[in-house]
Specification:
The chain has 490 residues and is an alpha/beta fold. It is 32% helix and 24% strand. The strands form six sheets. A five-stranded antiparallel beta sheet has the order 20-17-16-21-22. A four-stranded parallel beta sheet has the order 2-1-3-4. A four-stranded parallel beta sheet has the order 9-8-10-11, sandwiched between helices.
């Protein structure tokens, strides 16, 4: 069995009575090269906080990028952080809970609480539901509240931290941990089957920088009808209607703190074909994760340094000025800053560390354009050069008044694009999945490097399809048809 590694906020959190295991601080796990190179390791994340962009969050995020088997996963953390998301899964658990507890009698309390530690709890009536909750939300330590109002239901599920675990739960924790490290749980999700060819495209008509313009959306509707797909444009208010469709195509800028992630999660839970799928959103919207993932796969990237308050003083030794600083989840050139010297780095990081415990620092590579290669199901479907905005070092220049300016573009046929560019882009996108991605690359004197991967790439009429014309719409819609048919055949 692969070794287990327990990551804690502080090694003093691991009580002397706990089993002897490999214990490492989250600070070391994030920054020490030794842990990056480990293979076939299982990581148990017991940090004091799992909040978004905390060190506990990054522990799970970077573990996934390093191909370590991690509990809890980033997806579990995101699901548990929002009642609106995890209620999709607790609906089915409520039925099972009611069977476990039966009808309420007058002698029972109407509210029950229990700790669930690696699927174990110390209340005999709740042992079965505890295993089910852990199978659904694989979080090591949870506190769950059940309440009765006509029937039993789960009213809250909250991760708890090891240093907050009551002393009377220590024996159960030790037993549960010993069992967990000896066996694996089956966390596979049940799926439902759908039958019709109806595609929903989620968009926001008021978005300033949408991934697709109105003309593109109209093309999808027209060509979809030709191919036998009814295409509907839906908005945020149509969340409850998702189950009516066979597939969801997200044409809004995605973010895991945004309702687009909820739509993707809901679509997946209803067994719809969905692009962007939730895992792609999770992986692509965080630049720190992407940097680790690409580095682990041997994909060429700019010299990169994961930055936190404790290692800020080392930055000058790692990357020469100017240095590019990135917040983890920026998009369309937002949240990306260039620092010319140490003073600017200090000013920028003082501001950025207020929102994120971790930042990404990269070497600045000047080029007059970036390549954007569109990848669908592991194949290139468009190739563009995006030129820097006039008198600016980025493709999009954002003014303080909220206005923005794009640079020019040049579109190429796939066969006319340098083979090395296509090969590198496909390799990078394959690390994410088989969805629809836009891989940004720079062509430098030292070779091709990948800057980032977008889970929601631009597709605007007359730009990305300037060479392929309507063929690109046919390609994307036919891929939806293929995936829908595949699901129906299961």
């Amino acid at each position: 069995m692969p070794p287990h590694l327990v990551v804690v906020e502080n090694t003093t959190d691991w009580h002397s009575s706990f089993p002897e295991m490999q214990i490492v601080s989250v600070k070391d796990y994030i920054s020490q090269p030794y842990y990056f190179s480990l293979k076939n390791v299982r990581v148990i994340n017991l940090c004091r906080s799992y909040r978004y962009l905390s060190r506990g969050y990054y522990c799970s995020l970077l573990a996934e990028a390093r191909h370590h088997k991690i509990i809890p996963s980033v997806r579990t953390l995101r699901d548990l952080s929002s009642k609106a998301i995890y209620s999709l899964d607790t609906d089915s658990l409520d039925d099972f809970l009611h069977k476990c507890l039966g009808k309420h009698n007058g002698n029972m309390p109407t509210v029950l609480e229990t700790y669930i530690l690696f699927g174990f709890c110390d209340k005999s009536d709740l042992k079965k539901i505890a295993r089910q909750i852990f199978a659904t939300f694989s979080c090591p330590l949870m506190k769950v509240e059940f309440s009765y109002s006509g029937s039993w239901h789960i009213s809250s599920i909250k991760p708890i931290q090891l240093n907050a675990l009551p002393l009377d739960q220590y024996p159960l924790f030790i037993e549960a941990l010993n069992v967990y490290t000896r066996r694996e749980y089956d966390n596979s999700e049940k799926t439902k089957h759908t039958t019709r060819y109806d595609l929903a495209i989620l968009y926001d008509p008021n978005e300033k920088l949408p991934p697709s313009d109105a003309e593109t959306l109209e093309k999808f509707i027209t060509i979809g009808n030709e191919l036998g797909i009814d295409v509907d444009l839906i908005k945020k208010k149509d969340y409850a209607r998702l189950a009516e469709y066979d597939a969801l195509f997200i044409r809004e800028t995605t973010n895991i703190e945004h309702y687009t992630y909820r739509f993707a999660k809901k679509a997946e839970s209803e067994n719809l074909v969905v692009i962007d799928d939730p895992d792609s959103i999770l992986r692509c919207t965080n630049k720190v994760y992407l940097a680790e993932l690409l580095k682990a796969s041997g994909t060429p990237i700019p010299k990169t340094f994961i930055l936190h308050k404790d290692n800020l003083h080392l930055l000058e030794n790692e990357i020469p000025y100017p240095v590019v600083l990135k917040i983890p989840d920026g998009s369309f050139s937002r949240g990306v800053f260039k620092a010319e010297n140490a003073e600017e780095v200090l000013e920028m990081t003082n501001r950025l560390f207020k929102d994120s415990d971790i930042l990404l620092a990269q070497e600045y590579l000047y080029t007059t354009f970036d390549w954007r290669i569109g990848i669908l199901n592991r194949k290139a479907i468009f190739a563009c050069q995006y030129f820097m905005s006039e008198a600016h070092w980025q493709i999009v220049k954002h003014d303080k008044n909220g206005e923005f300016n794009y640079g020019n573009f040049r579109t190429f046929a796939i066969e006319d694009t340098p083979k090395k560019v296509i090969k590198t882009a496909v390799k990078a996108a394959n690390q994410i999945g088989n969805g629809f991605y836009g891989v940004d690359l720079k062509q430098t004197d030292k070779g091709i490097v990948v800057i980032e991967i977008n889970d929601n790439p631009n597709l605007d009429e007359g730009v990305e399809n300037a060479v392929s014309k309507d063929k690109i719409y046919h390609t994307i819609l036919k891929e939806f048809i293929r995936r829908i048919r595949k699901k129906q055949q299961r």
